[in-house]
Each structure stands twice: as structure tokens, then as C-alpha cells.
Predict the structure.
Amino acid sequence: MIKKSSATLSATLPRLGALLGLCFHYAAWAGPTLEEGFARPPISARPWVYWFWLNGNITSNGITADLEAMQRAGIGGVLIMEVDQGTPKGAAAFGGTEWRKLFQHVCAEAHRLGLQVNMNNDAGWCGSGGPWITPELAMQKIVWTETNLSGPAHFEATLVQPQAVANFYRDIAVLAFPTPTAEGRIEDIQGKAAFVPKRISPRSTWPVLPPQATISRQRMVNLTDRLGPSGHLDWNVPPGHWTILRLGHTTTGTDNHPAPEAGRGLECDKLSPKGADAMFAGLIDKLITDSRPLAGNTLISTHIDSWEVGSQNWTPRFAEEFQRRRGYDLRNFLPVFTGRVVDSLEVSERFLWDVRQTVSDLLVENYAGRLRQRAHQHGLRLSIEAYDGNPCDDLSYAGRADEPMAEFWSWGVNTAYSCTEMSSAAHVYGKPILGAEAFTATDGEKWQLHPAAIKTLGDWAFCEGINRFVFHRYALQPWQDRPPGMSMGPWGLHYERTETWWEDSAAWHEYLARCQFLLQQGLFVADLCYLEPEGSPQRFTLTLPGREGNTPQRPEYNFDGCPPEVVLTRMSVKDGRLVLPDGMTYRMLVLPEVQTMTPPLLRRIKELVRAGATVVGPPPAKSPSLSDYPKCDVEVKSLAAELWGGGQDGNVANRGRRAECRFGKGRIVWDGTTAAADQSSAHPLEKAKWIWYSEGNPAVAAPVAKRYFRRIVELEQNRKLASARIVLTADNAFELWVNGQAGGTGDSWEHAYTFDITRLLKPGANLLAVAASNGGQGPNPAGLIAALSVQFADGQRLEVDTDRRWESALAAPGNWNSDAGSGDTWKPALELGALGMAPWNIPGASAAEYSFPSFDLIADELARAGVPPDFEGDARLHYIHKRLGETEIYFVANPLTNWIGVSCAFRVTGKPPEIWDPMTGRISTQSVYEEREGRTLLPLWLEPAGSLFVVFRQTHSKKAAPILAMERDGQSILPKPGEPQAGPPVAEVMSGVGGSGLLAWQPGAYVLQRGSQSSRFEVAPLPEPLELTGSWDVSFQPNRGAPAKVAFSSLHDWSQDTDPGVKYFSGTARYTKTFTLPAEWVASDKRLYLDLGKVAIMARVKINGRDLGVWWKAPFRGDITDFVRGGQNELEVSVVNLWINRMIGDEELPEDSSRNADGTLKEWPAWLEGGGPSPTGRYTFTTWRLWKRGSPLQESGLLGPVGVSMARWEPLGR
């Protein structure tokens, strides 16, 4: 047992005292790995950076300086990519001799410094391509030409060769068929035939076309063997009108981008292992050879980044692989690739489903799986950003990575879905490390962000399951003294050694490393496993109240998504729980609300239920595939009838909202008032109208602006609600609120967004409110379309569609989305037209995104089983729960800019809670808590943007009865469940060598209740804080244009100073001041705290020569009791600001380089290449200028007020 006195405790925890109003004492060490790793995180827990090399501008000195700076600051590794973002060309051509020598230098230096290296598998940031990929090994697509003939006749001629991209073409087949006399074409064939990646929702019925609009397989003639080498065909044409298709394949022509010229080439074939082998051999194999013996040690991984290379739908062995996987020959279905209908629309659509699934299977196995296999042969791992834009199932694709990666943006783009999806993939495939391209930004970031500004977003990402940040981005700095220096074009986050605050960032990185260390431990705790629908391309999406915006909330019962592959190959049942080989368990499997499922998947679900699983969801009606058709549909119907107990016979709706069927040891539960969505017969927006504010003709051109829309929806008071979903989209983006609560967001009019808003509705009047934004550079089409479907427990429905009954406005008051009576400028919305109108042209038969059963139904089912929520507190808090053996680890984060006190409920009992503070690395067991109904209720005070771990690991000691209540002047000072408190705690309970005690920030009569015993304290009035007013001596960092030293008569914003050197200063300035403490303030019953007030942006604090570290976020406050003395004390505060002011100031000076209008360089200036200073006296140099003369300056410096405050220590006894 390690114990410290209260004085020592505060000395080592300069900021912890203000964090928690709880009972502290240090816990016994349970094991060196967890506790020591948290206190001193290993290199494996450190954050990484995307290290972008810019167009050959690489130097060995720059490499060394960058890596050394990373090591100093606490970075653990680099993911290298070289890109061309408009930077003038450098001397080191990608992959050339000099470039490879520089890469060897990277590995040697990284090894010396203890850093790790992940090398992207090509140049650019997407896909896998390069000049070594020849057309026959590149991505392939089907192409064709048509020849129309009339018979009887003899045809002898050369068929026109289809398109040959990159002068490459190979034949597949020549087919002839009677020309249909009626037009029958498949909608959206580009997406359905995988010419482009597009998610196609599951469907179960299709229109029946007349025979004259289709092609009969029985009458199709295969002429492939008659085709000569040059395309010559000799054929006796039968009577009638005939069409000949010459089908072949060529490369898609897609190349890797944005790659430097020397590294640019065709993208490799993603469906053939030969393509992956050629890709690996072209770069990574060579780098491994160059880097031995560091390959597998320092060079530890290769990487596939964003999928931005479109789709492919052919590979030389596609036909053979298709037959092996789907069980039938595709040759007579090849005309479907042209959009024609073979046999029937249903048969053709099923074939296309099989095509897309085969493309997905081959990509996952022969591209991702093969590259991983090649990496493993050399001791390397593979990381993949496996989401969105690809022609496959995201989760299965991610499952082939050793380390899946997501991304989240700090500026300009919402990619929160990728964190949810890749987190699920990591959990269901047993991947302990989940990285993320972290804090990516558009050019709007402009050096504005810093650790404190991005912390809450990072904390949210941790709660989504991310446990390794890879900062986007660090641009390689080829120079030693050119700040801010090289930029990755316009993209942020700017995160280099040239940042003003880089040398002060170690504390921030240590915070991240502590979080990542704990979050890399154990298994994620989730109750629900959501099965995504079969089919490809596929993305796992879950639309629940709170899961919207850039930081969606996790529900009180947590979840993962899984692909069908996991259910088929990895999932089993033990003791009624669904289990995976790596240890993950779930209480329920939730099915998507779709009407299709293949027999193998449904058979597997039957086996799981028989073994004891609980499954929630509706029965399917048929298979989506042509495999074994039509027998497959008969089997699906039979299995569904068996599992759902006659649900297909129409009896479900008569059972009320909850229906259940027991089978074997398990059961299936579903909403008896609804059936699975038939997403084929009608688009859910089919009856809705596009609307906009009445201003000209919005469907042609509307201003680039935001417009506001509302509709009141009345729900009967005595009618029980079963579920409510809204489907909507807007050109270009929207935000939805329901009764003032966030309901969802979207940013693509091509995507119909579905949100479960059941929990947001109430009996009586409900206000739907949408803010729709029209983006772009100038006037362009704008529109909003939405449909609300409310299902009642009695089976009745209420449908509300967008039309002129909605009201709209140019502007809206602050409460417009919660108060239907607010504002007086509302007028009826303008109806533009139906769903399929131009310019949007959305097909009426195109389906919206799939959905899942109502979360309320699922939560009710868990409650019926006696399972309380895993975590509850204030709805605004973020959380995640991990389990390591018998140890329960919760991370809780406050995204607010203010203090909050919350009674949090954790689904753990029998173990005292401990606080593990990632800011300091200290661990303390809590005494103020209560166990109730299978959960531990723990009051937490979280500072602005504060976060902490709550760990449960030891069994209760009989001597340690918890404190159940705390009062001040007869009033409870602990937050109650559901009633959060604003502001910091008024008192804390702490313990140390001298015994436990009360640390009080306010005077009054305190009572602490522990079981039947109570302790009472009278805290006398405390003195007012001592404000440090008057003058400060300030020394500025040299060579930044400011005077060496000045005296400030009072604290003020540098940007408001009259001296231009101070006004435009960027860097570090050291403030010093002598202050006097009354002797009586320094006593054993008092604790003293320094509060710096406002700081822009971070500060290193020293008192009497002793370093208190870097204070990088608000509140800038710490315990200084053991650093001060009665009488005179010396305070030193070194404050650093951002680059912005100096860059704006430099724009007052003459130009020193040749620039384009957007701030980019035309060429390297001679003075830079010569190593000299700017000839015009500028202090900054960057390759992409983002600030202009006269731009607003940023608040900077120590702004205060600075003061010392006191808290009273009252002993409780041992």
C-alpha cells in the first residue's frame, strides 16, 4: 500500500484537487502492467502522426530533426505518405535511389529513437497503384459494343472492338439474342453492376416486365468460339432481328493520387491476388530489403488509406470465381451488365446482387487479405482505412486488417460514422488496436487549432472505440529554421515541430498515451450486436436519437455492428450469450428490418437461437440472391415460419407491440405491429414533395444560404407509440431537431437518411424543425424532402410528408426549433415537385437506407430480463466501458465548456470505484458512492472538457463503508440522479497518511454520512482570493519581431498592444512577478491554489524555481501549497500563442516569394534555397499562405485575472 500525506498528495497532483468532489486514497498495486503502464505509458501507447512527404522535398537533416522532435514530444510512430499538393518539385524522386536511401535513414533514425514506422503501400493517399502496375494487372471493368442484324442472313465481318483504356483490351464473350421489341432497362445499372460503388438497399419485389422487353436465356446464342483473333465473326443469322454483344474488359484507367509524378501509375487489380502481389513487389518488398534487419522491428507495418479509386467489376478469373461462389454460370447473364433484362427483372436484379457480392468477396480476399498475407511473410502488419466509397462490405474489408483505421475531422467534414463502423470491425474481428486519422481539417483550420481546442473531439473518439490517434497531419520539414515551414497543401491539422507550442505538447501527448494505454486493454463491453444486411457495397449505420452530428452519443446499452460473415463463421452461443473467439460477448443479436436473407445466414441464425441466443427483429420473406433460385425462397419461407412461429401467416400484428417465439433454448422477439420494410415497392419519400423557401425558382437556383423549416405533428394523448422514423435529405445539407432535441444530420442529397426518433416524440404537439443549407460558390439548386412514419401500438400509422403545410423562414430566432410560437416571419413552404423531379432525378423505386427495430423495444426487452443500463449520467456525457478479466474500466468525458457534477450509474457492484486521472497518472479509490439495484452510483465532478477513468477491480473491504451522503448547511451537495449540478464542487473528501479529511471551498456546517455514523464540521469563512495585480516583467522569444523585454502595467491581450512587435508576436513569452503571501495562509489546515484565469493558449508554470509543468487547457488552475512560502514568492509563467498573428503581421511587409492567387508557391525562392533570411524582413515562411493582410488577430498571452485562493482542510481521523 502506497500512502501519502495530504500535503504530498496535493504537491504531486497540482490539478487533480479541482477535478473531483470525492473521497481519495491511493490503491494498492494490483500488478505492474496496468498501473505502471498508466503512470508511465509505454511507447506502444503513444499517439502517432501521418508524416506527409511533399513532392520530393526531403532531406536527411529534416528527417532527423522531425523524428527527434516527435520523440521529445511523446509521439510513438509515423505513417509515411508522399503526396503532391502543389508544392514545387524536390530532388528526391519517389522510389528512386536517393529516395530509398532517405527511407533507410528514416528507419535507422526511428530505431535509434525508439519510434515505429508504417509505410503507405504506394504514393498518394488512396488505393494501391504505381508506375510498375501494367494495364493487365490494373483494375478492370466490363466494356462492350453492339451490332444489330436481321436474318436470315450470313454475317461475316469484324465486330467493333469495345473501349481499350491504356491501349489494353481482352475479350470475354460474344453473345447474340433476339432484339427485344419493347424497351426494358434496369435503373441505376452503373451502381448495380458495380461500375461505380453505390450502396443498394435490399429489395424483395420488382415490377413484372412484358416478355417483349426481356431477353430469354433459352434463345441466347453463345458465339464466343466463332470470334477470330482480330474480332472477325462468321455466323449464319437466324430469322428475325438480332443483337450481338461483344463483351470484354479493359482497365478502368484509375491511378493513385495525389501522387508525385514518379510514383503515379495505374491502380492494381483489386480482385486478383496477382494485382496485390505486383503492388507489394513494386514498393514495399524493396523497402523491406533495403531496411533489413529493421523490417518487422522498426518498419512494422504497411498501410492502405482512403478508398477513392471508384469500382471494378471484372478480373481475368471473375467468371470462374463467380461460379465457385454463387453456384451457377454467369455467361448467359452478361447482357445484364449493359442494363438489359434477362428472363425477368427479378432474375436480373438477383444476378446483379450476386455480382456485387462476388466483387466484395474477391476484393476482401485477394486485395486486403493478400496484402496482409504478404506483409506477414516479412513480419509486418497491415492497417486499412476500410470504409466508404469502396465496392465491398466495409466491415469484412476491415476484418482483413491487423489494425483497422477510422477517421474524424476537426474542421469541415463529418466522418463520425467511420469511427463507429471501424470500432465495430475491430471488436467483432478481435483487433486490439483501432487507429484513426485524427483531427483532419480543411483549409479553414489555418493554424487555429491546438491541444485544448481538440481535446473534447478526441475524448469522443476514445468513447467510440478509437485507441490510437494518428494525427493528420505532420508535414516533413526539410529545413531547420523556416517556421511554420512546409505545409501539406491546404490541409490541417497543422502538427509539426515548427508549431509555436510543439515543445510544450508533451503533457498533452502523455494524456493521450494514458488514455490509449487503458483503452487498448481488455474487451469492449456491449449488450447488442447489430447485424448489417447482406449485400454489397455495405456500410454499418445505426440511427438513434443522439447519434447525429460530428460527435454522436452512445446509448445506455452499448452496441457493435457485425457483417453476416461474422455470424456465419465466428459467432457461437454460451450460457445464453453470443460469443466470439476473441472473447467478445453480446446479450442480443439485432436483425435489420429488411425482407431478404440468404438461406445459409438464416440457417445459422436458427442454430444460434436453438443454442440459446436471443434475436430481435422481423422475419425475412425471400433470398436476395439468384443462387439456387427459386428453391432458396422456399427454404427462407420455411425457416422463417419455423423461427417466427407463423409470423409469415399474418398473425403478428394481432399480438400487440411485442411478439416472441421461443425455439430450442433461445427466442426471437420482434415488433408485432410492424413487418420488415419492403424497400422495393416504394421509396419512403415517394409521397413527399421537395420544398424550399419561396425565393425565385429554387429547383434551378437558390442563394447559398441556410433556410429554416418546421411542422407541428399532433399525437393523440391516449395512444401508445410503438416507433417513429423519419427519412429525409436535402441539397446540400440539413440538421434535424424534434422538440428542440437533436435528431440527425446529413450532407448528401443523394442519400436518404433514416433516423429513429421514437424517444424524442411525446403525446400532444410535437415540433419537427429542419435547418437546410444550400452550399456551393454561387446560386444553385436547393431543396428539402422528408417523410415521417409513426407506428402506434394498435397497428395504426401516421404519415407526415414535406409539402406546403410546412412553414419556412429566411432567418429564425434562437428557440425556433423548440417553441412553435417563436418568430413572426414564417410562411408556407414552396412545393417544388415530387421525389423524381429534376435536377435530383431520384428514382421512385430506389430504396432508402435500411433500419433496425426500435431501440425502445430493445431496451424494454433488456429491462424485462433484469439488465440495467451499462452507464447512465447526464445525457451529454460520453462514455466507453472495457473489461480486463475481473477489472471494469470506464472512461467518462465531459464535452461541455463548463463544470458539471453528475450522479453516474455504472453496472458494477461489489468493488469500490477508483479514479484513474489521465491528466496526472494518479490513482485514487473513492469513498463517496452507493450501490443500488445492481449498479454503483458515483458522484463525479468533471471540469470543462474534463475526463477520467472509473475503474472497478478490488472486492469490498469490511472496514471501508462508503460515504452515502454529504450536506452543507442542511442541503445535499452531491448531485442527484438525473439532476446534474453546474459549477465545481463546494467540498471534497480526501485521505492521506494523517487521516481522512474534508477539503472545503466554501464555509458552512458540513455533515458526512457513512452508514449509521455521521461526521460534522464547521468551516469558518475563507479569505477572498489574493489577486496578483500590478506590473509584470515580460520577456519575448527572440527573432520573432518583439522587444526582448517589456514591463506590462497590467495583463492584456498582445494583439491589442500598441507596439507592432508585440501585437503581431507569435511564440513564447515569459511573465515574471513577485507576490507576497500572508504568513497565516501557509498552514497545515489550508490548501492554496493558483488560478491563471484566461490563457491564450497554454502556459508552463514555475514557482520559486520549481516547475509545475505545462497547463495546456482550462481551467488553468493548480495546487501550489507545497511550492510557496509565507512572504515573497517568485512566479514565472511562460505563455505560448498561435502562429496566426505573426503571419498576419508579415503580410504588412513586402512579398518575398512568387505566389499564386491562392497563396501557393510558384517556385522555391532563391533566398530559401540559398539558406538566407527573407530579403523583406518576414519572420514566417510557409508553402501555403492562408492568412491575409488585415485579417482579425487572435487573442494572445496571459490575460488573467491571476490569483491565489484557499481551501480549508478539516481532518476526519484515520
About this structure: Residues 62 and 480 are 7 Å apart (CA to CA). Residues 345-377 form the longest helix (33 residues). Residues 1-31, 647-655 have pLDDT under 50 and may be disordered. The longest strand covers residues 232-251.
